[in-house]
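Target protein
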Amino acid sequence: MLSAEILRELFEAGRPYAVYLETGSPDQRANFKRVYDGASLTAAQAALVGGFVRRMPVLVISGMWCGDCVNQCPLIARIAEANPKAIDLRFVDRDEHRALSDAVKICGGNRVPTVIWMAEDFEFVHLLGDRTLSRYRAIAATQLGPACPVPGAGVDADERQAVIQDWINEFERVHLILRTSGRLRQKHED
């Protein structure tokens, strides 16, 4: 995996969500906004994320042109908003940061979105890309077999909520890794 020094440099080159959106065309920004406006955390989800105490820089490799990014990056942004003290979220364009994308290929491909979680000192913690389990289940249900969905079809609310929960589970997993880390517990004396 990439060194903490390299991850720090890449993270610092990243853009906050709102700034990243400005790199897209008006139509691309509208698509991201539509998903963002339709996404929310439940009270229980917001409370869970709001309780995170360890800082976690999170770097998302994305593409404004990417349908999976349109349907997942706004959800990740919503999660980060629930605890900006702990979750420091940045985005980089896959094509602008091809070496990074090449370093974290998934199944031999430059998949997006790909999310890299780090400890506060930019040590690598976790990687997930391009879709959550719920999203893959939904795709498999429509694409494996006799039927195929219409290109560009929207994601229904139940699936969107399941995908949000999948992402929250990953954020919680990383937080628990950070919270139980002997190295970090010693540093923070907790």
